Structure formats: C-alpha cells, structure tokens
Amino acid sequence: MRPQVLTMVAFGPFATKQVIDFTSLGENPLFLINGPTGAGKTTILDAICFALYGKTTGDEREGSQMRCDLAAEDLLTEVSFQFQLGTDGYLIRRVPEQQRLKKSGDGHTVQKSEAQLYRIEADGEHTPLVATKVSEATAEIELLTGLDVDQFRQVMVLPQGKFRELLMADSKAREKIFSQLFQTHIYRKIEDKLKFQAANIRNAVREHRNKRDGMLLNIEVSSDDALRDEISGLEPRLTQAKVDNEQAKSSLISASKQLESAKVLINDFNELGKLEQAQAQFQSNEPLLLQRQQQLDNGHKAQQLKPLLDGSAARDVELKQAQTLMATAQQAKQQSEQALIEAKEHFDALPEQEQQLQQLQQQLQQLSQLVPQLSGLDELYQAAKQASSALQQAKLSGSKSREQFDELQQQIEQLKLQIPALEDLAAEQVSAGQAVSHLSEMIERYQGWLQAKSSVQKTEQQLAQAKQHGQLLRDKFSQAQLTHRQLQLVWHQGQAASLAMQLNEGQPCPVCGSEQHPNLATSDERLPSEEELTQAQQAEENANSSLNQARSEYAALQTRLQEQQKLADELQNKLAQYSEQSVDELQQQLLLKQQLLAKANQGAEQLSQLRSQINEREASAQQQRNALDLERERFQELQQQVSSLQGKVEQAENHIPADYRSLDALQAAIKQFTTDVEQRQQTINATRHSYSHARELDASHSASVTAAQQSQSQCIELQQQALNELNTALAEQGFDSQQALQQALLPADVLQQIATEIANEQQQRIENQARLSQLNEKLAQQVTPNLTEVEQQVQQAQLAQQTAETAWQALQGRMTQLVQTQKQLEQADAAAKQLEDEYAVVGTLADVANGQTGNKISLQRFVLSVLLDDVLLAASERLQLMSKGRYRLLRKEDRAKGNKASGLELEVEDAYTAKVRPVATLSGGESFMAALSMALGLSDVVQAYAGGIKLDTLFIDEGFGSLDQDSLELAIRTLIDLQSAGRMVGVISHVSEMKEQISSRIEITKSANGSITRVCRA
Questions:
Q1: Is 846 exposed, middle or buried (0-12, 13-18, 19+ CB in 10 A)?
Q2: Alpha-carbon distance values, 766 to 270, 283, 370, 696, 759 (Å)
C-alpha cells in the first residue's frame, strides 16, 4: 500500500482542513514528519489508521475523541485517505460520531459515524464500494490490504511506545500475523484434511473388525479353525445325502409316468363316448340341411335376375324426373311472359325521361360557372374567421398564463416553508440506518442462537429416542438369537424320528445295521423346514446388523450434540447482553428504529423532491413571464389583421348574389344537380337493359318447354321396354312374380354364410366318422384302469423324495452358510489389511502435519518457521549493521512447556558474550533497533515471495532518541538503503541529526488557532 493524499478536517490538533499530498514528495521518498511536541505528528499516522480501520495507531483514543476543540462548530470532523494498491487506486472517507449544529433551529444533534469507500478508475471516475456502513468499509479494507488493524500497526506502522510488541509477540500471535502476510492457510487446510482422512480410516478399520466378529457369531463358530473343521466334517455327509436324493427322484419319475399313461387311456374312452353322441346328432339334422340347400339355390337364381329388376326400377325413376322437369319449364314460361309485358310498358315511357335529363344538365352548367367568382370570397371569409378566432384565443391564453404565473409564485413560497422541518427529519437518516443494521445483525444472530438451542434440544430428544430404540433392538436381537437356536435344537433332535419314518421291517438300519426295529424314534414337535431355519438365521443377522447400526447412530448423535452445544454457546457469547432479551423485544426495538429510519428516508426523499419541485416551479415561472410578453405582442398584431380582412370581405360581397356567397352552399347545389343527372341517366339505361333481358329470357323458356316434352315421351317408351324384359326372365327362372323374386333375393354375404355352414357340417361329419373308427380300433383290446391305486403309488414316491430332499437341503444349507462366511471373512481381512496399509501412510502424515510427533510443530507452523528464518536472516543483517556486529536474531527451537504453542518465539545472540538470551533482555534502544530490523526484514521477505502482500510503505514514530550517535547514523543509512530499494519511509523524530540528513519533510506548525501542515521537498 502506498499513500497518495491524506485530507483531515477538524481532526486532532488540526482545526481546519489540511491536505497532505504524499505524491509531491517524490516517487520513493524518505521523509521526516517534523514539528514541536503536541503539534500533531503522530496524529497524521492516527488519521491514516483511522481512515482505514476506524481506530488510531496507539488504540488509546476513539474516533469520537479526535475532534478538534478549536474547530468551528459548523465544520464536520472527517478524514479522507487516497492510496494505491498495486495498480489500483482507492479513496476512503470516515466521519466519527460527534456533536454538530442542527441544520435548522438552535442546539446540537448527534452525527453518527459513517464511512464511504471508492475505487478510482483509470479515467478518474469513482466507483462506490461501500455506501455508509462502517463495518462493511473496515471488512473491505481488510480484504484489500490483507491486514487487520493490529497487523497493520505491527508491520507497516511502528507506533510510539509500541516497538516491542512485534518483537515480543508469542508464537500464537506471530503465527496469526505471518499466516495472513504469507497466505499459508493452505497448509492449515492440509492438516485438517489429513486429520479427517485418518479418522475415517480408523473408523473403517474398527467397523471391519466388528463386522468380522459378528460373522463368526452369526454362524455360532468360535474361530476360523472351528469353521474349517466343521466344513471338512460336513462334506462326506452331504455327498451321501445327494445320492439318496437322486435315487428318490428316479422312483418318483417312474411312478409319475405310470400315472400319466393311465390318465391318457381314460381320456380316450371318454372321447369315444362323445364321438358316438355326435354321430347320432348328425343323423337327426339331415332334413334341415336339405332345406338350407334349397334356399341357397333360389338365392343364386335371384342374383342372376337382379340387374333386370334394378333396370326396371331405374326407368320408373327417370320417368318421374322427366314429368317434374316438364312442370317446372311450363311454370317458368308463364313468369317470363308476364315480365316481358311489364318491361315493355317502362320502355315506352323513355322519351319523356330523356327530356327531363337535358333540363337538369343545363341547370348544372349554369351553377358551375359561379365557382371561380365565389372562390375568392370564400377565402376572405375563412381568413377573417381564423384571424378573429386567433384574436380571441390570444386574449384567453394571456389571461390564463397570467393566472398560472401568479399561482406558481404562490406555490414556490408555500414549498419553501416546508424545507426546515424536512431537513431536521432527514438528519436522523444515518444514525437510524446504523441502528437498524446493528439490530438486524443482532436479531439474525439471536435467531441463529435460538435455532442452535432448538437443534440441541432436538438432538437430545433424538439421543433419548436412539437409546430407547437401541434397547428395543437389543431385546429383538436376543429374541431372534434364542428362536434360531431353539429351531436348530428341534431340527437336530427330530432327525432320528425322520430317519425312523423311512425304515421298513426286514431292511437294515443305516445307523446300526439291525433288521429288527422294536423301538422306533418319534418326535412330539413338528420339525422345522430348511426355509424356516434360513429365515430364523436371516432374522438373527438382520437384528444384529440393526443393533450395530443403532450403536453407530447413537455415537454420531452424541458427537453432533457436543458440536451443537458448542455452537450455541459461541452464539450466546457473541450476543452478549442481547441474549438476556427476547426476540420479540429485539424485533420491537428494530421496528421502532425501522420506523424512525423510514421517516428519515421519507423526509430525505421528500426534501430532495421538494427542492426539485421548487427549482422546477421557478423555471416554469420564468417561462411563464417570457410567454406573457410574447402573447401581448401577438394580440396587437392580430387586431390589425382582423380589421384589414373585414374591409376586403365587404367589397367582394357586392359582386356576388346573396344566395351563392357561400362556396359550400354553391358546391352542395352543384353536387346535388350532378347526382340527379347521374341517377336519371342510370334509370334510362336500366330500363333499356331490362326490356332486352326480358325478351331473351322469354325465348329461352319457350325452348326449355319443347325439350322437356321430348324427354318425357322418350322415358315412357324406355320404361315399358324394361318391364317386358323383366316379366319374360321371371317366367324362365320359375318365379311367379316380382314379389317372389325379391323374397328369394339375399345379400351375397348371407349366401356365402349359408354355403359355409353347409360345407362345415359336412366336413365335421367326415372328421367325426374317421376319429370314431380310429378309437374303436385302438381301444378294442383295452380296459379302463384304476386311477386311485396309481395315484397312491405316486404319493408314496413323493413322500420318499421329499424326505431325502429335506435331509440334503439341511446339509447343503449349512455348508453354503459356512462357505459363504469363510469367503466373507477372507474379503473382510483383505479390506482391513488394505485400510491398515493406507492408515500407515495417511495416519503418519496426519500425525506429522498436526504436530503429534517430535517437537509438536504443525505443518503450517513449520512452514512459518522457515519463513521466519528468512525474515530473521534479513533482519539480522540490518541489526548487525546497526549494533556494530553485536546482535543477531534467532528463532527459538526449544519446545514450550505444556500445550503452549511454540516454534515461532525469538531469541537474540550476543556476540560479546557468545550466549543466546531472550529478546526481552534488550534495552530500549536495542529493542528499537531490533524492532526496526524486524519490520524491514519482514517487508523484504514478504515481497520476495510470489503472491505475498506488498509492504512498500513504513512509518516509524519516534524511538531514534534512544540511540547513540553511531547507532543513529547506521539506522539512517539503513532507511536510505530501504528508500533506494523502492519503498516509502516516513519518520517522526525530534532528533536534530534526522532533520539534517532527511531533507524531504512534512512540517507541522503549532498555534493557538490549531496546527497546519506544509510539504517541503528537497
């Protein structure tokens, strides 16, 4: 950051407006801020720090305490600071809270603090970044500079009496400063990321171990060796059970085939009976079949005669149409004869109408000759009328304009009376806005606190429910485990009874080999099936899985409750005294402030609108005054024009008759005569056309009557010829009349349906006879089998197969369960091994990065220690120069006691004693040299690292008086070298040697009326 212009008004000892242009000191100046004690040297640094952060360099005075008592009451205390960051320019203005005169009336009011921040564009335009809110301006400055106020004081300003703070800062404070300057937050993120990954891997390993123990517990095996032994013992038993099951299946298949053969034979006997019944039914339907065949034959004959029947009907229709056409033509002939008579009468009256037309044409010609004479008179009439109308309008407009002018003057006076009250109301806008913003922020925090408390209560309820739910799941798991074991016990105990059911007298027992079975084993309980055992086992596994899930959820809820309680406590601490109030009380306060702000905003808006209205009305009043003068001149000109036109009209009227002095009346008469002539001509033409058309139409209708008579005679002859042909065909085909023909006539689809039905029945007769002969031949030597005996044999075979299947499934299910569990254990061991290998890397990195090994130094602090070593190396070069080779700054590498942060503390090496001791043992002058060296070294290293914050300005307030002559010369030489490297250095000092060697100065002159500044360049 490089200062450009500082403007102070009524600030500190400066009673008036003081402007300090740092750019006038040169490109990279080394300058002295010089003046007597109390003149305001430190105030310049306070003003810069206050403009940026709202606080002074020493943080001993608030902004509200910086108002100059010598300043005029109407002068507002404020500070404006223009500075440059890289290539961008910025301007910030701050006004502290203070008492000021009211804009209207007597007394004072409170001017609330405010701040505005602008970015200065390349064209000089100021783009607003912050409008008025103080906190937003401070946050934006911290974002732009990368420093908060404390860090700014330590690295860019060495305030009076504060040199030792940067030097004596502990590891935690120095870590905060350096991490911000060097932007090392990425290393903190790496620490957190590794720590999170390591925790996840540890949890995953723990879950795999629990899952493995649960697998063994679910199959009731104590270890992997016991699992392998049980699998080896089950293999021979499973092989024998499979052989027995296959033999039982073969017996069942043979019995099923015998049953299917018996069912087929019975079906053949049943089908034979149905075929014999169908044969008898065909014989009884023989007469109906013959009747349907006769109907089909008559239908085909009728289809052949249908064209003759349709032709006769068509001739009848044509005759009726010809008769209708004849009657229509005769009627049209009568109407045309009557129309011709009427047209002849109108045609005979045409000579009289032609004579009337000639008279109208003569009158029209006479009126047309008056048009040129009347045109000039009409123009005079119009001009005189327009001039009189304009004169009257000018008179009315002048009166109206005068009234408007008087009304505007009255409105302006009334509006000016409202200004004082609105100015007082608008003055509360800034303070009310800040209060609303503060209360809104507090309410938002309060609501967040309430929400956090609600989350805590909700999580506590969920925790209690989870605990209760876990107890239920534990009981459910115990019950499922007990049920599974009981079913297994019943199943094992019932195997002897199941085997006894398969023994027959005389057959050896597969267990003892005896052929005598005097005491067969029995079971009073129903044996569970393999499916029931599997379901019980699955139920036990599901209950165990649910129980483990519930335990994990309970632990997660406990962790969430701790985090939520911590968040709630932090929010309550941020609320401070506001937490003792209710949200309704805060909202009520906010509502009052919002109402006050709304009134103030409304007052400010009304004030702006009022001033705009006054300006608009004053401008309108001036326009009205100018318009009145113009209208007065216009009225006089119109009076002269009206008098001249009236004389011309009187002269023209003497040469034109009174009836035709109006051009409109003459043109209306001409138009009327023209219309009469055209209408009379149209009537004559229409009469001639009507007579000609009537003669043509009558001749056309006469020809139509003759044609209709000829058509009717021809239709009668054709109709008789078609009737004779139809009667001859009916006699040849054996039909008595047309009615008999129509009865026999059937649609083609009906005839096709009848033919299909006859053909289908004949085909069915043939197929039935063939199948009947086939079955008689097949069943000639067969008898009906006994189906009940065959079904009993099948049932016995099914029972034997089910017993063998049950025994095999029980062994196979257990073997499958054991083998699957063995594979799952191998997969779980492999996954756990992979996680353990991953944790060996990630866990170690997490411990190292988070400072859990060795000297307990985290990754970020290690990086900062390396950067601090670079800073100390640069600082020691200057310190050795200023201390004549005696002192060198070192980083303390010993671990601090307890859990205190370490790794960034400083020590000083004394070449005179060859010992290392704490920096707190340095004297005042030595501490100043060490702090100055530290600040300069920090500036060098920060700018050397890409992406670091550029520290190209340094202000030093006093401290040089504690140095001896030689050390002072060395310190001044160091500052000159720093200036040559492209930095701006400002020094406040009373030492005379400083004044002699630093020629560029900001001189401050102290007086009884306040201090003033003056920039002096070498």
A1: buried
A2: 20, 12, 119, 82, 11
Integer Cα distance of 172 and 170 in angstroms: 6
The pLDDT of residue 961 is above 70: no
Do 670 and 364 meet the contact criterion of CB atoms below 8 Å apart?
A: yes
- CB-facing half-sphere around the CA of 759: CA atoms within 13 A: 7
Helix (H, G, I), strand (E, B) or coil at 61: coil
Question: How far out from the chain centre does Cα 336 lie?
Answer: 84
Q: Do the Cβ atoms of 219 and 818 come closer than 8 Å?
A: yes
> What are the distances in angstroms from CA 42 to CA 160, 161, 810, 1002, 1014?
8, 12, 96, 12, 15
The set of residues, in sequence order, having a beta carbon less than 8 Å from that of 364 and lying 6+ positions away, is: 670, 673, 674, 677
3-class SS string, 624-671? HHHHHHHHHHHHHHHHHHHHHHHHHHHHHHCCCCHHHCCHHHHHHHHH
- What Cα–Cα distance (Å) separates residue 573 from each residue in 186, 446, 569, 911? 29, 11, 6, 50
CB 715 within 8 A of CB 315: yes
Whether the per-residue pLDDT at 577 is higher than 70: the answer is: yes
| pLDDT score of 947 | 46
- The residue type found at 821 is T
C-beta of residue 708 within 8 angstroms of C-beta of residue 327: no
Structure token digits, residue 54: 């709202």
Under a CB-based contact definition with an 8 Å cutoff, are residues 343 and 688 in contact?
no
Q: Can you state the angle between helices 859-882 and 924-944, rounded to 10 degrees?
A: 120
Q: Pull the structure tokens for residue 981.
A: 């490297």
The torsion angles phi and psi of 111, rounded to 5 degrees, stand at -90, 115
Burial 683-708 (b: 16+ CB within 10 A, else e): eeeebeebbeebeebbeebeebeeeb
- Joined together, the tokens standing for residue 304 give 């052949």
- Is the Cβ–Cβ distance between 862 and 182 less than 8 Å? no
Its sign, for the CA torsion 252, 253, 254, 257, is positive
Mean predicted confidence (pLDDT) in 28-55: 88
Look up the pTM and report it: 0.39
pLDDT in tens, 770-786: 877 887 877 777 777 77
Q: How far is it, in rounded angstroms, from Cα 5 to Cα 241?
A: 102
The Cα 241–Cα 235 span in angstroms is: 10
| Model confidence pLDDT, tens digit, residues 606-658 | 777 877 787 787 777 777 777 777 777 777 777 777 777 667 666 666 666 66
Do residues 132 and 141 make contact, with C-beta atoms less than 8 angstroms apart? no
What residue has token string 């990195």?
845
Task: Tell me phi and psi for residue 196, to 5 degrees.
Answer: -65, -45
Alpha carbon distance 552, 560 (integer Å): 12
Joined together, the tokens standing for residue 166 give 């940067």
11, 66 in Cβ contact below 8 A? yes
Q: What is the pLDDT of residues 975-1003, one digit of tens each?
A: 777 777 777 888 887 777 777 778 888 98
Q: Could you tell me if 554 and 463 are in contact, meaning their C-beta atoms sit under 8 angstroms apart?
A: yes
Per-residue pLDDT, 94: 93
Strands 906-910 and 126-130: unpaired
SS3 string of 937-994? HHHHHHHHCCCCCCCCEEEEECCHHHCCHHHHHHHHHHHHHHHHCCCEEEEECCCHHH
Q: Determine phi and psi for 540, rounding to 5 degrees.
A: -65, -45
Of 45, 256, 38, 211, the closest CA to residue 793 belongs to 256
Report H helices in 779-895: 787-849, 859-882
Return d(Cα 80, Cα 398) in angstroms, integer: 56
